[in-house]
Amino acid sequence: MSPETIAKITELVKSKRPDLMILTDDVYGTFVHDFRSLMAELPNNTIGVYSFSKYFGCTGWRLGTIAIHEDNIFDRMIARLPADVTAALDKRYGPLTLEPRKLKFIDRIVADSRDIALNHTAGLSLPQQVMMSLFSLAELMDDRKAYQDACMEIVNRRVWSMIEGLGLQITPNPNFDAYYGLIDFEFWARKNIGEEAVDYLKRNVHPLDLAFRLAEVHGIVLLNGGGFEAPNWSLRVSLANLPDEVYADIGRGVRAVARGYRDAYEAAARAAGAEAAKQVEPVPAE
Fold this sequence. Notes:
Blueprint: H1 3-15, E1 22-25, H2 38-41, E2 46-51, E3 64-68, H3 73-79, H4 83-93, H5 105-113, H6 126-141, H7 146-166, E4 180-184, H8 185-192, H9 195-204, H10 208-218, E5 223-224, E6 234-238, H11 244-279
Parallel strand pairs: 1-2
Antiparallel strand pairs: 2-3, 4-6, 5-6
Protein name: 8-amino-7-oxononanoate synthase
GO molecular function, one term: pyridoxal phosphate binding
InterPro entries: Aminotransferase_I/II_large, Ethylene_sulfur-biosynth, PyrdxlP-dep_Trfase, PyrdxlP-dep_Trfase_major, PyrdxlP-dep_Trfase_small
């Protein structure tokens, strides 16, 4: 998110919507130079979510945090709820405390994650606590941010390798974290194989065919972007977990599949032209 966008949101909250509730997922922020969270600008309105999994490469450990400022709008809004809603909340959180109305919002989140009754089981196991502590200490001790610089250099090198493989010329976006990438194949293909070929493709080929062809012909396994609210004719690429040289192969593989689609369109067009010629061929008089 650009500084200009953050400034607009900040101005909106301060001038018109002081009650605006903001949830920000900053898990990719550590891959962006000079990243600044909305929580730094609007701490009273923001729920901050962060996971150690991406930055430290520990997805399976399920290590993350939720942060809420001590003086926050969420507690104040709960306190102003109607009497019937407050009574329902008293009943819900009554098993935890004799004074459920004093229960902080963040404590309610923890309790809800364990269906209230199992609130005592919430939290991390000892190995998880140790691992999170080690990760945190490593980052605090790295004054020169050498680890962060190395992580950003790796993912950016890979994304530019893929971009070159696709034959693209684009301007770098300083706010792009380069952890995941989306290849908008339809947009790219309209510029590279032509509008008519893409229209033919959309009429005759399922969007998943792109991912399957990459896997079957080129040994490249990517996810279809449609499952991530991206265009159906798109591919989602993780820039964090494959060898560097693979990313150029991804770009070249996509171009090769596109050439195959173009060839199929041209063959279909020739066949349609030949069929049309037959239909208008004059019949000799007897």
